[in-house]
Amino acid sequence: MNTLTGYLRQAGTAVRFLIFATLVLGVAYPLAVFGVGQLIAPYQANGSIIKDGTGAPAASALIAQAAADDSGAQDPRWFHARPSAVKWDPASSSPSNLGPNDPKLLEAVTANRAAVAAAEGISEEQVPAEAVTASGSGLDPDISPAYARLQVPRVAAAQHLSADTVMSLVNKHTNSGLTAFLGQPSVNVTALNVDLAAAAPSK
Length: 203
Prior knowledge:
mainly alpha; two-stranded antiparallel ribbon
């Protein structure tokens, strides 16, 4: 009888601890983290959603969007992000998995370099490395300010905007300060294209 009582006492203790741990770690802690996120960084906590000129959700600043048609041709009206092994599909995230000695990697880089040079009207030697290589996720929305500036003439002409207007948008979306201090200055292409759509004259 004493052994059974001991087992029941231990089981009761275990059940009470399980309930306590569930309430603290499964309910209170997640709610506390969510609440702090909403107070300190609501933009990041809610998926970094970008809104268009009407206030409607347009995109997430964390994910690059395709600026290409069904054939894969890049649309000249928009700023282009880095190449993507998953065709900028937000339902997937993956690198190309091509090693440095894989001939297919050289073929992809060569093809991308030629396409960028033709689109921007520059020599292949002027094409930056990020314009021909995909990111690890395939969804990176950031490019360097230099690559963004390289695209300004094409975008301005295609959108019927002045180069100064388009350049001002690039400058607006160039990360600086703490963000640049921790890494390198960058331009968020997704946010830039949302603002570009708002600034472009209606067709």
